[in-house]
Amino acid sequence: MTLYHGTHQTTSRPARRSGPHLIALVLVALLGLLANMLLVEAYLRNDFAPDSEPGQEQPADAVPAAVASGGPVIDVSGTSPHTYRMPARTIALTFDDGPDSRWTPRILDVLHRHQARGTFFVLGSLVVRHPELARRIAAEGHEIGVHTFTHPRVAALPTWLRGLEHSATRGAIAYTTGRSSSLYRPPYSSIADALDNSDLPTLRETAHQGYLTVLNDLDGEDWQRPGVEAIVRNATPAGTSGAIVLLHDAGGDRSQTVAALDRLIPRLQARGYRFTTVSAALAGSIPAANPQAGFAERSRGWALVWMVRTADLTLELLWLLLFAAGVLFLGRTLLVVVTAQRHARRRRSPGWSWGPPVSDPVTIVVPAFNEAKTIEPAVRSLAQSVHPGVEVIVVDDASTDGTGAVVTGLRLDNVRVIRTPSGGKAAALNTGVAFARHDLIVMVDADTVVEADAIHRLVQPFADPRVGAVSGNVKVGNRHSLLGTWQHIEYVVGFNLDRRLYDMLGCIPTIPGALGAFRRRAVEDAGGLQVDTLAEDTDLTIAVHRAGWRVVFEETARAWTEAPTGLRQLWRQRYRWSFGTMQALWKHRGAVIERGPSGRFGRRGLLLVTLFSVLLPLLAPLLDIMAVYGLVFLDRWAATIGWLSMMVIQAVTSAIAFRLDHESLRPLWTLPLQQVFYRQLMYLVLLHSALTAVAGRRLRWQKLRRTGEVTRPAPVG
Asked: Catalytic pick from 151, 166, 248, 387?
């Protein structure tokens, strides 16, 4: 990520009409859509207990006697209730909680083998996920009834949600099979005598919606898996009585149910029993259960089915992306930690040297636009560098706050001010390079204060004639606030640790604008600084690589920069960084297929930067989103352990980075807060930048508000 803070630039191309408000609306819409899909999934995946699990006992004094002592098929739509029983030697096998991809087909096979028919009370959510099974049930002459959409305890639901559970299931059946349904069985129901006062509202509501409530006479209790013979015994009526038998084709292991049917059906058929559907057994008393569905019902079902399928696909995609994010996160962590430690050991070994000491004179170019508050300490620290032969050129890019006058008033012999019309940072740097007297050029931002020996240390790698550019070690100078502390952690862990990795691999993507050194020839070979991206430092660094020069990191060349002190300023800065980096990567994408130094950098540097600086930060929010989602709706212990494991990895990585940079570990106490609050802001910034890039908008440089808090190098440790 580019480390430029602050000067003004305009581009020659006008901004498109689609402004930031439109991008923000798109961002909000995407987040809202994602939240809705996750809530749909959470509702659909709510676990349920077996049908016969007892609930709290309720009084039953309001239940009409005709219902409590009547048959299992109940109609309370009229002024007086009616109930119906199965005729003698007639069995209606009913199956709840399906369809299930494993057990429903096996049960259908048994019914087909014995020429028996059944009634399947289905869950709408499973009909959506297994439409082929719902169609097979209907095609083979079986009956389909409504068993709600998600299997809740309907008595505990508000009226509107009960209605939605029923209508959504009927819609799913209509769209999938072309048939409506007039049969309803409430979850956790049993025989009519077990009805209590809490069941009455649902009985009346469903009756007014056109349903007949179907309970049961016999419960096979297969949900308890008591053994095949026990299920057969429980499902066998006494004498020649007819019965509605409750079984299940989903909700757990139903192998005993399948085996029990293979014994029960032929055994009762031998006794003269017929196996048919509920409505067929009561033909003439109740209407057919599955008439043709109307257009409106099928249309509602279509909308519902595709909403659920979209939610399913969304969650599956999120899990896939989460896996990718986890692999990238762990891979990057392992690669960065191992490589950074090797980098530190190599550079700090007694025999390490860039070569003969470099004492060539240096020109320091400082681009400045309205930096009157920060320019004095920055220029003084540069002018007082211990390196011999330092000249400082301050390029005043049409400042209106007297920046140039502040520098002139310092009366420093080795400092010059060049005033230019407004052209932006890249143009100001090009001007400074053109006026530079020396071939070693250091570029420093106007809000940056350097250590006395920073410039001398920064240019030592030029002892190697292959080195064309050197990155300094930039730190946050105003770290006294919580926001400043978080940015300090980000600089040490997110920027400097990565820079060690890229240095070892020979593909540093960015020489920070806050402190970087170049050979004049390397800048010329790269074509100078360009104005077609917002990340002119990243753009120049990549161009130097492609021109065949080495780019290295000198950790001992330290500088302190002023980080934004407010959230609005921080957002603007990071938004520009992210967008500019994406621009630079896109601009140099051709390097991936080129040969020579350009191709080597393209296939190594561009790939790593794209993976670790763009793709991983875009995917990283999923780690938090799915952790919260899992904590609320899924396995909370697994979600907690997963998120805490990620935090431990982050803490260990941060501690290693701070030790490598000789920083005190004290600020790391804020790391959990940074992960919870600050990181979410960075996610939104990057997503905003990505949407802006996709929309094809161009941005202008914006001046950040400075306080001048960084007046001298902060102590290390």
From this structure: 248
The pLDDT value given to residue 575: 83
Q: How is domain 321-695 classified at the architecture level of CATH?
A: Alpha-Beta Complex (3.90)
The pLDDT, as a whole number, for residue 567 is 86
- In the prediction, which pLDDT does 644 show? 84
248 is catalytic: yes
Q: Can you tell me whether residue 305 is helix, strand or coil?
A: helix
In this prediction, the residues of the chain whose per-residue pLDDT falls under 70 are 1-58, 632-634, 693-717
Please tell me the CATH superfamily of domain 65-293, with its number.
Glycoside hydrolase/deacetylase (3.20.20.370)
Catalytic one of 96, 199, 222, 445: 96
- Predicted pLDDT of residue 10: 36
Q: What are the domain boundaries of the chain?
A: 65-293, 321-695
pLDDT digits (tens, 9 = 90+) for 470-500: 999 999 988 888 998 999 998 998 887 888 9
Helix H or strand E segment including 419? strand 415-420
- Cα dist. 401→8, 52, 424, 552 in Å? 13, 79, 16, 36
Q: Which residue has the tokens 């070569």?
A: 355
Which of these, 536, 530, 533, 581, lies nearest to 698 by C-alpha position?
Answer: 533
The shares of helix, strand and coil residues in the chain, as percent rounded to the nearest 5, are 50, 15, 35
Which of the 8 DSSP states describes residue 605? I
545 is catalytic: no
Residues belonging to the chain? 717
